[in-house]
Amino acid sequence: MYRTLSIALLIAFLMLCQTAQVAHASHITFMTHSIEDNAFIDEHGELRGKENGGRRAFSIELVREMMILMDHSMEFQEVSFKRGLKTVQQESDHALFNVSRTLERENTVKWVGPIRSSKNYFYELAEAPTGVKTLEDARKVNCVSVLNGNVQHNFLVKNGFKNLETTNSYIANFKMLVNKRCPLIPSSGSSLPAWLKEADLPPDAVLRTPVMLVETKGYLTFSKNIPDVEIQRWQDALEQIKKSGKYENLVKKYLQPE
Predict the structure, then answer these.
(1) 82 part of a folded domain
(2) Do 2 and 49 touch, CB atoms closer than 8 A?
(3) How far apart are CA 90 and CA 86, in angstroms?
């Protein structure tokens, strides 16, 4: 009798734990960064990515598809990248995207992805070419505008760049370039069309230099207190979207310029 009761209590306990883990998802605060004009609020009061809006729009729509599968509320907080990263690393029940996976960050959060990979190059104004061909050349320009605390910033600091002007958004970097305050900015090619469109500039206004910085993979990150079983469910949701063909549809709709 006691053995039967013990087994029943164990089963009840395990079911309670599983229920708590599943319910945990509804308490996760999702954060994103560098939205700028790549997204909008729809008639339901929800954040949506703009068509051909680049990586930010794509990431928002992809995470929304994951939320649908997870039955999670579609609420987002926009934060600066540095603040968002600090929050997800130090506070419970938060998620942040996109975040590049690096050795320094590896054990500070839990990872789902990759969402998307991209190559990052230096870009310059077509009307004011710098002539840079190497990292050493880029160290000699008067300044490089870069997002504070992101993987590009960290790469440049590690490679001895002393001429960095940090900003709180990617579009701020682009404006520094357009206004000729800094002759170089790092960017991925998939993000560039959205910045050009926002600045009302033609696609040939900016040129890619031959200097590649890093190839990055963007992830959805979670606070470390969120159970591994929950992290796996989000990973499974991403894989399901990829297998269904929805992922490639999102790529075509949001990443490809008009």
Answers:
(1) yes
(2) no
(3) 6
Provide the residue range defining the domain that includes 66.
Answer: 28-114+222-255
The pairing of strands 29-32 and 76-78 is parallel
130 within 8 A of 206, measured Cβ to Cβ: no
Full-model pTM = 0.70
Cα–Cα distance, 53 to 163 (Å, whole number)? 30
Check which CATH number belongs to the domain holding 153 and give it. Answer: 3.40.190.10
Domain count, the chain: 2
Say yes or no: 232 and 105 in one domain. yes
Residue 10 has pLDDT above 70, yes or no: no
Res 3: pLDDT: 53
Question: Does residue 202 share a domain with residue 128?
Answer: yes
Residues 110 and 108: their CA atoms lie apart, in Å, by: 7
Determine, yes or no, domain membership for 60.
yes
Neighbouring C-beta atoms of residue 121, cutoff 10 Å:
20
- Judged against a pLDDT cut of 90, whether residue 196 lies above it is answered with no
- Whether residue 9 is predicted with pLDDT greater than 60 in this model: the reply is no
Task: Identify which of 145, 132, 137 has the alpha carbon closest to the alpha carbon of residue 209.
Answer: 132
